[in-house]
Backbone:
C-alpha cells in the first residue's frame, strides 16, 4: 500500500493487485511500534492504510485476485492472476511472507490472542506471564532475549534434542527464567478467550504433559510469498527475492521488490513501508530513465 500511494502520487497509471489487503500485522491485537501511534490494533492500522491508499487519484485496486505468475516478453511484463491478465512496463513485488505454522489445534484460533509470531512486536504484551517459545534457531533464541525483560517464565521448546542456533545467542539465553524442553513437540494450544495452556509430547518417552502458559511464540521460520516470480527473478537459498538495497531492483530490469518477500534483514512493518516507498520511486525512475538494474 505504501508503494501504491507513492506510485500514484507520481502520476503514473498504477494498478495494485492483492488477494486481500493487509498483511501479517492485521492479526495483531496490539501494535506498539508503528511510528506515530503509541498503541493500535492491526485492524485499525489496515483501515488507516487502506483509507490513505483509496484517497489517491490514478490508482486502480483489484482485490480478491491471487497472482499466479509474472513473466516478461521483450519490455512488457504479463501479470497473470486467477481471474485476469494484465500488461505493464514495471512491477513492484510486495507480497510479503507468511510465518511457518505448527499446524496444531488451537494455533489459528488463538492467533493474536496469545499465539504470536513476532517477538520484536509483541514481547511487551507478555509482562509477568508464562510464555512458550517454539524453535531453537536464531529467531527462537532472539525471541527469548526479547521476552526476558517482560515474561515471568519462558519455556524454550524444539523437536530436536539440542539447540541449533548460534553459540553466542545460546549463551545469552541461559537464565533462571528459561527452561529448556528439547526433544518435545506441541500437540495442542488450549484456552478460552485467550491461551491458557499448551499440551506437548516428550518424543523420547511418548509422555504427554501440559504447561500453564498465556503465550506461544512460534519461531520456526518464514516462508516468503515469492512463488509468482520464482521463474523470473533471482531468489536466495531461503527463497527470498535478492535485491539491491539502495534501488530495490531485482535481477530483472523493471522488476522491483520490497518488504518481507525480499532478503531485507529486518522484517518489520515500518521497514517494509519505507522499502515500499523506495521501490515505487525506483520503479518510477526506471520508467523515465530505463537504467536501474541490480
Residues:
Amino acid at each position: 500500500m505504501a508503494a501504491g500511494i507513492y506510485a500514484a502520487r507520481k502520476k503514473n497509471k498504477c494498478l495494485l493487485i492483492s488477494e486481500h489487503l493487509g498483511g501479517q500485522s492485521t492479526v495483531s491485537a496490539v501494535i506498539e511500534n508503528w511510528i506515530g501511534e503509541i498503541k493500535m490494533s492491526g485492524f485499525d492500522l489496515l483501515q488507516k492504510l487502506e483509507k490513505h491508499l483509496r484517497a489517491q487519484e490514478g490508482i486502480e485496486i483489484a482485490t480478491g485476485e491471487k497472482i499466479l505468475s509474472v513473466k516478461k516478453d521483450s519490455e512488457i511484463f504479463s501479470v497473470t492472476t486467477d481471474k485476469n491478465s494484465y500488461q505493464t512496463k514495471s512491477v513492484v513485488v510486495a507480497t510479503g511472507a507468511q510465518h511457518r505454522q505448527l499446524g496444531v489445534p488451537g494455533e489459528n484460533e488463538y492467533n493474536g490472542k496469545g499465539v504470536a509470531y513476532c517477538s520484536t512486536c509483541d514481547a511487551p504484551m507478555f509482562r509477568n506471564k508464562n510464555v512458550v517459545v517454539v524453535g531453537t534457531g536464531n529467531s527462537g533464541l532472539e525471541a527469548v532475549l526479547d521476552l526476558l525483560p517482560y515474561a515471568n517464565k519462558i519455556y524454550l521448546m524444539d523437536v530436536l534434542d539440542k539447540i541449533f542456533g548460534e553459540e553466542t545467542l545460546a549463551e545469552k539465553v541461559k537464565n533462571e527464567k528459561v527452561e529448556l524442553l528439547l526433544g518435545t513437540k506441541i500437540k495442542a494450544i488450549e484456552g478460552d478467550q485467550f491461551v491458557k495452556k499448551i499440551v506437548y509430547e516428550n518424543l523420547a518417552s511418548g509422555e504427554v504433559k501440559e504447561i500453564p502458559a498465556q503465550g506461544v511464540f512460534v519461531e520456526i521460520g518464514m516462508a516468503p510469498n515469492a512463488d509468482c516470480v520464482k521463474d523470473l527473478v533471482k531468489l536466495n537459498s531461503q527463497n527470498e527475492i535478492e535485491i539491491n538495497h539502495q534501488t530495490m531492483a531485482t535481477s530483472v530490469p523493471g522488476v522491483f521488490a520490497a518488504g518481507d518477500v525480499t532478503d531485507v534483514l529486518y522484517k518489520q512493518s515500518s521497514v517494509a513501508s519505507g522499502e515500499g516507498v523506495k521501490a515505487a520511486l525506483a520503479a518510477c525512475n526506471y520508467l523515465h530513465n530505463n537504467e536501474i538494474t541490480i
Observations:
- The chain has six helices and 17 strands.
- The chain has a mean pLDDT of 93.
